[in-house]
Write a structure and sequence with these properties.
- The complex is a heterodimer of chains A (83) and B (441).
- Chain A has 83 residues and is of the alpha+beta class.
- Chain A has 2 helices and 4 strands, in the order βαβαββ.
- Chain A has a 4-stranded mixed beta sheet, with helices on one face.
- In chain A, a hairpin with a 2-residue loop joins strand 3 and strand 4.
- The longest helix of chain A is centred in the N-terminal third of the chain and has 12 residues.
- The model of chain A has no long low-confidence stretch (mean pLDDT 88).
- The longest helix of chain B has 35 residues.
- Classes of the chains: A alpha+beta (83), B mainly alpha (441).
- Strand 1 of chain A pairs antiparallel with strand 2 of chain B.
Chain lengths: 83, 441
């Protein structure tokens, strides 16, 4: 994914102070509310290995950047509506 | 910044099948405990006692650690499992080995012992290969990852001793070294594998579920690992080699010191945790941690006093280590690891679209606490019976059944969610306005 590409909407959430499975719930809630073609940036303490399963099943593009031992950013793209 | 490709966590059936085996073994072992526990006051190397102990250690502790590792290792090491297919194969090999091995012990059937022992050895080898292979893939390797990896290596060493002991039953080739190899087997499995894996898992799980990970101190974590792993290796060698006895005493003291360092880290996490609410894993973890120190202190004192296998202290120490530490800790962490596994299977596909329960809403906290106090009473009572030589162990078995029944009731309650129909659960998602979990545009 291109982290700098413009999107129809970009939302950021920070789930670093939530205990499992609340981070996954928050991310999936935010994705539901996100307009088609929008992007969600998630601040997390670790790579959400189980969330990746759900994102792949839902057909969402995603990419992860490691910022340190206790910090990663996950960028998730919601597919646009077919024209 | 490093961009990482993301691949999936392992299929949920892999950890689940080991956990089901573990729970079945646990139920059987506790169910027969009123009859089996008195065996501990007879010879410590008899076939029936060995069968009971291995039902607990291989059937419950081993299967649960392997299953939980397959779920937790990808999260702890931030890397997908090296091979899920190999993991699935390892289950059937492990199961066949366990059934043959236990049958061999119960029937004094030597081919069952040797073939079962060999299959179990292969099962452990696959487990070790998967854990170490995953570690090599990890983007970075912290102390938690090394605890799990070193624990896995110790399981291989302990299994090697175990296979030697199994073959010895037929040929007697160990001769006068039998007791030394048996002692080394017990030390390596309990301190090297179970305790070190438990410590690594505890650092991750306690930190994750109480929001205290940032309060872990890497240097004491590493120091604790070096003390426990070094002490275990040294003690097992000292038991086998004709070294001065003070080496064994020093090695036991190293293990004790390592456990104290671990306890200090756990205390630090609990005191500084951001999530201040009570979590059900806490009494189990604190009790297991306390008994871990007591069992290591008991081992050290026993070695200093020159205890022999005929004394009550070695058996009481083994009771504390197996039932007090391993079984207690596993019950506590089961409420996090296995509940989360079921949640992933049942509720992750619904999350975000409808309300889903929190983990603690999937079982009864009151039943879990009742089980904890009954279980703890049984452990302390059993230790006293063994130390004092009293023949009331069947009563302790009944108390174990009472405590374990509460746990099993909750296990069934949790497992029912796995098969629950797909309607909306009763409870709602937690929303905490004003926290960092809030959405920002």
């Amino acid at each position: 994914m291109d982290w700098d590409a413009p999107a129809t909407a970009e939302v950021t959430i920070d789930v670093r102070e939530l205990v499992p499975p609340e981070p996954m719930i928050r991310v999936l809630q935010a994705l539901e509310a996100l307009p088609d073609g929008g992007r969600l940036l998630v601040h997390h303490v670790r790579r959400p290995m189980h969330l990746y399963d759900r994102l792949d099943e839902m057909g969402y593009a995603h990419d992860t950047r490691e910022l340190g031992p206790d910090r990663v950013d996950v960028l998730i793209g919601k597919p646009g509506r077919p024209s | 910044m490093m961009s990482l490709d993301s691949r999936n966590a392992p299929s949920l059936d892999l950890p689940a099948r080991f956990m089901v085996l573990a729970i079945v073994s646990f139920a059987v072992a506790v169910g027969i405990s009123p009859w089996a526990l008195p065996l501990m006051q007879g010879g410590f190397n008899t076939f029936p006692l060995l069968a009971f102990v291995h039902l607990v250690t291989l059937g419950f502790i081993g299967a649960m650690i392997i299953g939980a590792s397959y779920q937790l290792v990808p999260v702890a090491l931030q890397a997908p499992l090296r091979s899920v297919r190999l993991g699935r194969a390892s289950f059937w090999i492990y199961l066949a080995g366990l059934v043959l091995f236990l049958t061999g012990l119960l029937r004094e059937w030597l081919p069952g012992l040797s073939i079962g022992g060999t299959l179990l050895g292969i099962g452990f080898t696959l487990y070790i290969a998967i854990v170490l292979g995953t570690l090599l893939r990890a983007p970075y390797r912290d102390a938690v990852g090394w605890h799990i990896a070193i624990g896995a290596v110790f399981s291989g060493v302990g299994m090697t001793y175990g296979v030697l002991l199994a073959f010895n039953k037929g040929s007697g080739f160990l001769g006068g070294q039998l007791l030394d190899v048996l002692a080394a087997h017990i030390v390596v499995m309990l301190s090297g594998w179970v305790a070190i894996t438990f410590i690594g898992v505890a650092y991750r799980l306690i930190g994750m579920f109480t929001l205290a990970e940032k309060h872990l101190q890497p240097r004491p974590m590493w120091a604790g690992l070096v003390l426990v792993a070094g002490g275990t290796a040294l003690l097992s060698l000292a038991l086998l080699a004709p070294w001065p006895w003070i080496v064994a005493q020093g090695a036991a003291a190293m293990i004790l010191a390592g456990f104290v360092v671990f306890a200090a880290q756990v205390r630090r996490m609990y005191r500084r945790r951001m999530r201040r609410t009570f979590d059900i894993h806490m009494p189990f973890a604190i009790a297991a941690n306390t008994m871990m120190i007591l069992s290591a202190a008991s081992l050290t004192v026993g070695l200093v006093l020159g205890m022999t296998p005929a004394d009550p202290l070695p058996m009481a120490t083994g009771w504390l280590a197996i039932f007090g530490v391993a079984l207690t800790a596993i019950q506590g962490f089961f409420y996090k690891i296995s509940t989360f596994l079921v949640w992933l299977k049942r509720y992750a596909p619904l999350a975000g679209r409808q309300s889903v329960p929190k983990l603690e809403e999937m079982y009864s906290k009151r039943v879990a606490l009742a089980g904890f106090w009954t279980w703890l009473t049984a452990i302390v009572g059993g230790w006293l019976m063994l130390i004092l030589g009293l023949d009331w162990l069947p009563l302790i078995g009944l108390a174990l059944i009472a405590g374990a029944s509460c746990f099993v009731v909750n296990v069934v309650t949790i497992a029912r969610h796995w098969f629950a129909p797909a309607e909306a659960p009763a409870s709602s998602v937690v929303r905490r306005p004003g926290t960092k979990g809030g959405m920002t545009q």
